[in-house]
Amino acid sequence: MDNIIYAVIISVIRGGFYSLMAVGLSLVFGVMNIANFAHGEFYMLGAYFAYCGSVVFRLNPFLSILFAGAAVFVIGVGVEKAVFVPLRVRSKKNWLMNTFLLTLGISIIMQNLVRVVVGNRNYGLRRGYFQGNMQIFGMGISNDRIICFLISMAAIVGLMLFLNRTRLGRAIRAVSQDATGAQLVGINLGFIYSFTFGLSCALAAIAGACLLFKDPATPIVGLAPLYKSWFVLILVGMGNVGASIIGGIIVGFLETLAVDWLGSGWMDVMSLGIIMLMLIIKPNGLFGKKGVKSAVE
Questions:
Q1: 2-108+140-281, what's its fold?
Q2: Low-confidence residues of the chain: pLDDT under 50
Q3: How far apart are CA 227 and CA 238, in angstroms?
Q4: For residue 291, what pLDDT is reported?
Q5: With contact defined as beta carbons under 8 Å apart, do 13 and 146 qualify?
Q6: How far is the C-alpha of 226 from the C-alpha of 208, rounded, in Å?
Q7: Exposed, middle or buried, 70 (CB in 10 Å: 0-12/13-18/19+)?
């Protein structure tokens, strides 16, 4: 029973971080129809900025994570204006494939720029953000895991409230459902696209900043989180923001079971196996509708 409880706790915590990455990826796909394969690099930048905030500027952990999210939000807006605005003007066909190729190129460029600027050295926290353990059902879970998980959940809840309760959030949802109709009622598509892309990048950066205690900042630290977030999106359906939370927990639970039963080497095999079955049996995902692009919910 103790092993089952521990597996559930670890699955929820692990899935929470996957959900935060997947929500950002789902948001930009649902609103802008961009398959962002550079999402992991914004996770990477979040880790580097959190290291700067914590070690260089001596900020407290919460401010370091907030600093990382804000800095990468600005970078994301700049990337959208510099890259996707010209592409949107010139590319009328094959938009999804063009964005896939473009973001793949952005990913490679960003990784190598980081190598040129800071090198391949690992930048991590020697003692983590928060010292000590927290007792949950008699089991010790590190404070870093618990508090950073709560920060991730707070970011997701904040995003959902923003999308549903604010005028700007409702405008983003309107664009995701019908961009032409939204433009006809006076919504500025250019602003919505830039803001949405920046927000998506900020969510990835917060995930990278939260996990700095576990995964040091390196040029390729975002690759594994990128794969996990795509696992979640394929599982629940592309563009479905709300369901990404459930999908993250499911993927986290599958990986925990694989590690406990088969060993750590089978962790990705389990996830990939489920994703392959999902693509064959229900290619639109658990919560996707056949023939309909999922809207931001």
A1: ABC transporter involved in vitamin B12 uptake, BtuC (1.10.3470)
A2: 290-295
A3: 14
A4: 41
A5: yes
A6: 11
A7: middle
